[in-house]
Write a structure and sequence with these properties.
Layout: E1 3-7, H1 16-25, E2 31-35, H2 44-53, E3 56-62, H3 70-79, E4 86-87, E5 90-91, E6 97-104, H4 121-124, H5 126-135, E7 138-139, E8 143-146, H6 153-168, H7 175-187, H8 193-221
Parallel strand pairs: 1-2, 1-3, 3-6, 6-7, 6-8
Antiparallel strand pairs: 4-5
Helix pairs in contact: 1-6, 7-8
Length: about 220
């Protein structure tokens, strides 16, 4: 799967969050990192070609006043035009998926009813759901990054894993795909191959148990 990471950030060199994510994606051969602010003015034909080549498109940005920075809006206005992303018959990007990686400086708890912000992240991102519907994209649940500067090393390692899986897995929230992701990486290292084989065996056993449970539930309903 080829993934295009579209990054909107006006001062990316000073962003610890974006520099961490960029480094996390550097080893992924099928991932293209594309910083919009460094490519102004846009070559529309080149931008559209990048979109056509991608199987997954990621919008990546910090929340600025509860929305994306200006470069993402400009890019959508100039590049995502009629007859390229949609026409009278529907969306033209069917078969591709859209992910959103959004960072913010407040805790996750602030983005809920009764929280400091009082609105959910999903509410702020609703226009992108409409965009996906209009263009035929399959929308993934967003990957949210709260208070990166306050995270410890363990949390950063967890974020690296979540991010790489989000960019590369067909279904990033699927437990079996996540397990296989770990197995593949462990098997690539001779020193950890035994661990990979054990994890694979345990994953197979979990799959068999789930199938048995499903059959039992089906029998109860008959």
């Amino acid at each position: 799967m080829k993934t295009l990471v579209v990054v909107s950030h006006p001062n990316i060199e000073k962003s610890d969050t974006q520099q961490f994510l960029k480094a996390s994606a550097a080893s992924l051969s099928q991932v293209v990192w594309h910083h919009l602010d460094a490519n102004l003015p846009f070559d529309v034909a080149a931008e559209q070609q990048m979109i056509q080549k991608a199987d997954r498109i990621i919008f990546q940005f910090p929340l600025y006043w509860y929305m994306a920075p200006a470069s993402l809006h400009q890019w959508l206005t100039e590049v995502w035009v009629k007859q390229f992303v949609y026409n009278a018959h529907g969306g033209l990007l069917t078969g591709k998926s859209l992910g959103i990686v959004v960072s913010f400086s407040q805790p996750e708890s602030a983005y809920q009813l009764g929280g400091r912000v009082g609105f959910s992240v999903s509410q702020f991102l609703a226009p992108y759901a409409a965009l996906a519907e209009k263009t035929g994209l399959e929308l993934l649940a967003p990957l949210t990054i709260a208070r990166f500067a306050n995270q410890n090393d363990t949390e950063h390692q967890q974020l690296l894993i979540r991010y790489q899986q989000y960019l590369t897995l067909t279904h990033p929230d699927n437990a079996e795909e996540q397990a296989q992701w770990f197995i593949d990486r462990l098997q690539a290292d001779p020193d950890t191959k035994i661990m990979a084989d054990e994890l694979a065996a345990q994953t197979d056993e979990i799959g068999r148990l789930r199938l048995t449970l499903h059959e039992l539930k089906a029998g109860e309903s008959e």
